[in-house]
Design a protein that fits this description.
With about 290 residues, the protein is α/β, with parallel strands linked by helices. The protein is about 40% helix and about 15% strand.
């Protein structure tokens, strides 16, 4: 069951923690769309790693209240609020896919509390100089960001329709998505356990509305309100070379600008390859 933690502005955030209660606290930030029920190692693995894993529904997803007009930077304040409520001073942050920019926000804006940060298969800022932002990106994602550029109303209409489709039959939606994936991702999503987890993840995140999804896409399309160049926390960036959701050049762009970034690009892997390296990345968060 999720624990509800109240923010200073009166919102509630749905939070879960699992693994070793006395272990190193690590926030795992979910993808877009997603929820606190997204991909994570089993409890036994977390105990072996000595990790106390904390997940939460980003504002507007699942049981977390919406924050109208939120930016990527707002995630840092919400993570700090959760950490305070749980009595945690220092922590690591790992973000996968849509969670990756939010993990970098914690590194940039909570430098005294974020010991390490990892971004897996993430995006670069929309205004990234010298980056062809859409090159190699799948058509459905390109369409989302073009709708965002046209305005919140157009994006909302599009994602509300997709949300209704996913909510009606999340398993069928995942099957449809699988047909458009690179081969390495199709193999991963063919696993029945992973498919069941993705069904739970999407169903929970979009259970009430498309608000979280809309606000994620809008936040990626506007000023993040921090500069990657200002991050001083140790950062690990991982990307599958064949990713079509967030093309690998986004991570290469970030790695060139984050002073202490370590970049790993895996040949043959794609977007869902991040699920296979998650345990390894959590091990890297040791301090």
């Amino acid at each position: 069951m999720a624990e509800l933690i109240r923010t200073q502005d009166g919102r509630e955030l749905a939070v879960e923690h699992r693994g070793d209660p006395g272990g190193r606290p690590v926030f795992l930030l979910h993808g877009t769309p997603g929820s606190r029920l997204g991909p994570a190692p089993r409890t036994a693995v977390l105990y072996r790693l000595g990790v106390r894993l904390i997940t939460y529904d980003r504002a507007g997803y699942g049981d977390s209240d919406r924050l109208p007009g939120r930016r990527v930077a707002h995630a840092a304040a919400d993570v700090a609020t959760i950490a305070d409520a749980l009595g945690i001073d220092e922590f690591a942050v790992v973000g996968r896919s849509g969670g990756a920019p939010h993990a970098l926000a914690c590194a940039a804006l909570l430098p005294d509390r974020t010991v390490k940060a990892a971004g897996l298969v993430g995006l670069a800022p929309r205004d990234a100089q010298g980056l062809d932002w859409f090159e190699g990106m799948t058509e459905s994602n390109v369409r989302e960001y073009l709708n965002a550029a046209a305005g919140r109303r157009q994006l909302t209409g599009s994602l509300e329709f997709r949300t209704l489709t996913i909510r009606a039959d999340p398993a069928a939606s995942i099957a449809d998505m699988r047909s458009a994936l690179p081969e390495s991702d199709r193999v991963i999503v063919a696993d029945s356990g992973i498919r069941a987890m993705l069904v739970r993840n999407f169903a929970e995140g979009l259970r009430s509305s498309a608000d979280g999804w809309v606000d994620d896409v809008m936040s990626f399309s506007t000023d993040w309100e921090f500069r990657p160049e200002d991050i001083r926390t140790p950062v690990l960036l991982w990307h599958g070379e064949k990713d079509v959701f967030a093309p690998v050049q986004h991570t290469r762009w970030l790695a060139e600008r984050i002073p202490r970034a370590e970049m790993v690009v895996e040949r043959g892997a794609a977007h869902f390859g991040a699920l296979r390296v998650l345990t390894r990345v959590l091990s890297w968060t040791t301090w």
